[in-house]
Amino acid sequence: MSAPAGQDVTLRLGQEVAVQGKDLTVRYTRVVADSRCRPGMQCVWQGEATLAFLLKEPGRGESTTAELHSGPRTGPQATTFAASRIELVSVSEDAEEATVRIS
Fold first, then answer.
1. Which is nearest to 73 in space by CA: 46, 37, 40, 96?
2. Which one, of 34, 43, 40, 41, lies nearest residue 88 by Cα?
3. Which of 9, 25, 31, 73 to pair with 16, CA 20 to 30 A apart?
4. pLDDT class for 61, splitting at 50, 70, 90?
5. How far is CA 17 from CA 20, 37, 75, 78, in A?
6. Is the pLDDT at 72 greater than 80, yes or no?
7. How many domains does the structure of the chain reveal?
């Protein structure tokens, strides 16, 4: 799959996107933690999800792993790699899908 920079992209767990016009791919690799309040439950705190992404710059042979958080309490919601900003926008209830914005 490919998408233009600046557009929100929804990735399924294990899926990768190549960013058009940039030497960058982003793969949603795993759920590190998910303490979010489940549907139908009453929670004191809504919780957060932490997701791992593999970021690659194929032309340079560079790669790194980034852990992004669904909320600001436990860690960063965005990272920078290959002159691009990768931001976690949303996570599905079952964490099988993550929406990211790459700019």
1. 46
2. 34
3. 73
4. very high
5. 9, 29, 23, 17
6. no
7. 1
Q: Which residue has the tokens 């439950």?
A: 41
Q: Which residue has the tokens 């919601």?
A: 77
Binned at pLDDT 50, 70 and 90, residue 40 comes out as confident
Domain span including residue 14: 2-35+46-102
- 58 belongs to a structural domain: yes
Q: Please check whether residue 41 lies inside any domain of the structure.
A: no
Q: Are 8 and 98 in contact (CB under 8 A)?
A: no
Residue 75 has pLDDT above 90, yes or no: no
CB 16 within 8 A of CB 2: no
Ordered DSSP codes for 38-60: PTT---SS---EEEEEEEEETTT
Residue 92 in tokens:
């599905």
Residue 83 has pLDDT above 80, yes or no: yes
| Whole-structure pTM value | 0.91
Question: Percent of the chain at pLDDT above 90?
Answer: 82
